[in-house]
Amino acid sequence: MTSYTMFDPEVRDTKSEIIMATHTAPLGTFIIYVQTDRTYEKTPVVLWGVDQNATAVPITLSGVWDGVTNLNMCVLHPTGQCSRYEESWPTLADALDALASVGD
To answer: Which residues contact residue 38 at a Cβ distance below 8 angstroms, ignoring those fewer than 6 apart?
Structure first.
């Protein structure tokens, strides 16, 4: 799991990813954990962070990407679209189809 810290111009920590800024996440934004049977669990995203590579990262009360790194997770947006890094799906059903097989 990657360690993240908030940006501090006085500290140069090269072992951590740095969150440069945060922004409140819209209501209805969740991290989804997809099971192999296409069921899922969800955790609310409270903030969006921007890391030093200008990548948007979802933040829950447990941390960036909910404090875990799983291949079977994505963000469910209030619009119904799902995404993670360079991948996106137009619907939750499409994301469930794609991610349910990750653990196979």
So the answer is: 96, 97, 100
pLDDT of residue 54: 85
Contacting residues for 79 by C-beta, under 8 A, at least 6 apart: none
CB atoms within 10 A of CB 33: 17
Between CA 1 and CA 80, with CA 66 as vertex, the angle to 5 degrees is 130
Residues 33 and 70 sit within 8 Å (Cβ to Cβ): yes
The answer to whether 39 touches 79, Cβ cutoff 8 Å, is no
- Neighbouring C-alpha atoms within 13 Å toward the C-beta of 52: 14
Model confidence, pTM: 0.80
Query: Residues with Cβ < 8 Å from 99, sequence gap 6 or more?
Result: 34, 71, 72, 73, 74
